[in-house]
Write a structure and sequence with these properties.
single chain
Amino acid sequence: MKVPQPVYKVYEHALTSSIPVQRLPQHIGVLVDGNRRWAAQLGETTKHGHQAGAERIIEFLGWCRELKIPMVTLYMLSTENLNRSEEELKDLLEVIEGFITELSGARIAKIQGVGKLEALPSSLRCTLEDAVEKSQDLSDLHVNIAVGYGGRQEIVDAVRDLILGAVAEGKDMNELAENLEISDISSHLYTRGLPDPDLLIRTSGEQRLSGFLTWQSAYSEFHFCEALWPDFRRTDFLRALRDYANRQRRFGS
């Protein structure tokens, strides 16, 4: 049975009122999962599902702006995704590129690329670089677009950069190993300089992170939602925020 729209609005208002502003997360990571299954259920093409997912992201970022959540990281293309069939990968890359262009044109967020960006196809890489450059003056919302991203690869690249930097400075490797700190690794990640995510949301009912922010999510809270990403509603988002606000974060203490 379809619930009347006014009832949803009342429920959304009640949900919003139940969440203390001071307990909202400051950085949310989102695994936008379920686009292919959503399309298959409708008998549509995979590209149609990815396009619907991209449109939902724009709407989702609007919700974040309304609630004054300052940072969002979107998991849009993993290193494993690059191994998909040529046809599907072409369609996915076109949708991501179109999404970045739309987001840049809307001027609602400062954009940053996160991942092994040099490995991306030149067209997508150039589109992302252009969006980053054109959005540097924006500050209300910071959106990290994780493309060509893999959590394990990120840690490998961070360690490699750390070692190569030490070698270039003529440092002793034994001394480097003995004095190595967590902050040394963090300062060489793709996300260096950014705060770790407070909350990670994954849609489609899957309860795993699939290599998303492997290092950074050590003390993040997780929320898994059954809805496929194109069906993810504002009420689903508000439930995730309410769930987060009701948790006691101990950070290992």
